[in-house]
Specification:
Largest sheet: 11 strands, mixed
InterPro entries: Acyl_CoA_acyltransferase (IPR016181), GNAT_dom (IPR000182), Rv0428c-like_C (IPR056935), SH3_Rv0428c (IPR056934)
Organism: Mycolicibacterium litorale
Oligomer: single chain
Number of helices: 6
Helix content: 10-25%
CATH topology of the largest domain: Aminopeptidase
Protein name: N-acetyltransferase
CATH superfamily of the largest domain: Gcn5-related N-acetyltransferase (GNAT)
Number of domains: 3
Number of strands: 16
CATH architecture of the largest domain: 3-Layer(aba) Sandwich
Radius of gyration: 20 Å
GO molecular function, one term: acyltransferase activity, transferring groups other than amino-acyl groups
Order of helices and strands: EEEEEHEEEHEEEHHEEEHEHE
Shape: globular
Pfam family, one: Rv0428c_C
Amino acid sequence: MADLPRPGTRVSLRYRLPAGSVPPLNDVVGHLLDRDPVRVRTKTGETVEISPADVVSVRTLTDVPVKASQIRAVEHAAALGWPGLHREWLGGWLLRASDGYTHRGNSAVPLDINASTATVPAIRDWYARRGLTPWLAVPDRLVRMPQSDIHLESIVMVRTLPAEGAPEVTLTAEPDGAWLAVYEREVPVEVLTAVVDGQVAFGRIDDAAVGRGAVTPAHDGTRWVGLSAVRVAEDRRRRGHARAVCAALLAWGARSGATNAYAQVLADNAGAIALYESMGFTAQHRERYVDASKL
């Protein structure tokens, strides 16, 4: 039986038909729902059920048909939008370090078309010298990785701009005390405000909700606004605050020259995925964090 990815992943799967069938094999493309029995939902809504023993091969696909250059554009802008405090280009990978604060700020991402796993030993050494885990942020299709345990998986969602803003949202160039109080995570201000070749904005609705936007360029010159650090105080949820903060940051991004937007969401965060879908975002690809010391 072929190794199957996590449920929710879009796959192209080849499987055996009952004995005597002509042809003997069939293919199905869709989202993997379960692994035993194997259940795949196609784009028409049909669910195909297959015995695990009949699976011949499986290939992981992006969430929608997309070119590698489009994935690389989003990943390039996103890496510059959360670049960490220290960074270095190495063999087509951008290595980022932020004294351990956040996975994104302490990971290496393959952004050049020539990036490969041949650089992994040097990446391990770079992080070892800083006393950090050598996390690799591996997007779909940008580099071929050996089979490995996945630590975290994110869905990268995108949409085009412009967007309508929300007037009740306060925007500032740096997070103030009120913003940090709602955010609650212990991430240094210098990590939150770090950006390469771009600008950041911090949105806040009183003591109810906050979010961060970063406008940065992709390798092809297009400018993107990325949403991150979106949080609503527990006693102020389900009132539309997250939507308002995100809308204001998207509008700010459009005024700042961005023509597209992205959000990186943990694959198991159904609430955030539903919010972004309702705002016109669609899932483009996935990014998986892998510990390079275990490769």
